[in-house]
Design brief:
The chain has 93 residues and is mainly α. Helices cover 77% and strands 0% of the residues. It contains four helices and no strands.
Length: 93
Amino acid sequence: MKKFVIIFSMLAMSSSVLAGELTDTCKKYVGEVDDLIVEASKNEAAKPQMDALKAQMDQAKEQMAAMPAEQQDPACQQGIEMMGKMKASMGLK
C-alpha cells in the first residue's frame, strides 16, 4: 500500500508542473487518475489518502489548465505512461 501511495503522489506532483482548458492528452490523464482514485477509495484503509490525493489532483488540474498546450501534452503523456506502469504493477488494466 505504501508503494501505491508513493507512486500515486509522484503522479500528482508531476501533474502539478502543468489558460483555460486541458488538452485531450491531459483530459485522458486526469480521467485515468480519477478512475484510479475511485477504485482505490473502495479500500477503506486507502480512502483517507485517496481523498487527500483527489484534492491535490483538483489543484493540479487548475495548474495544468494554466499552461500552454505545447507544455501540457508532454507532461500529461508522461503521466499516462507512469499510470500504465503503476496499474500493471498493481495488476489493474
